[in-house]
Amino acid sequence: MSEGPSLSDFMRHLQAVLEESEEIGDRIERDSRQLQIESAIQEAIIFGNRFRELQEKGIDPLHIVLPNSREDATQHVSKLETLNVGHSNCGSCGARLENDLDFCPSCGEKR
């Protein structure tokens, strides 16, 4: 990975730009610019949180999967599916089962 600005550097930059946007004279233009910057800050926070969540689950967040023309190509996995890797659901009530339990905490059904 190349050395360069970090996510926290980017967020500090966005905070500085947000403060500078107060100087925009036209209220509509100022409000529009501030909305753009605030949205970018929110996306950076979401990205940082998701990156950490994936790393904690042992998933490489930067793994790039190239499209494959074969029929057995890996399908896109949603964020929810990614976070549920390694978990299963109870066959009786459908509740999420924890890996370290041999029964369902909702209904008591044994695995």
Written description of the protein model:
This protein has one domain. β1 and β2 (96-97) form a beta hairpin. With 111 residues, the chain is mainly alpha-helical. The radius of gyration is 22 Å and the shape is elongated. 44% of the residues lie in helices and 4% in strands. The mean pLDDT is 80. It has helices spanning 7-20, 27-56, 79-83, and strands spanning 88-89, 96-97.
Spans of 5+ residues with little confidence (pLDDT < 50)?
none
Structural class: mainly alpha
What letter string, H or E per element, gives the SSE order? HHHEE
Number of strands: 2
Report the total helices.
Answer: 3
Rounded to an integer in angstroms, the radius of gyration calculated over CA atoms is 22 Å
Distance between the termini: 43 Å
Largest sheet: 2 strands, antiparallel
Number of domains: 1
- Strand % is under 5%
Numbering strands along the chain, what is their spatial order in the largest sheet? 1-2
| Average pLDDT metric | 80
Backbone shape: elongated
Helix percentage: 40-55%
Write the layout of secondary structure elements.
Blueprint: H1 7-20, H2 27-56, H3 79-83, E1 88-89, E2 96-97
Antiparallel strand pairs: 1-2
Helix pairs in contact: 1-2
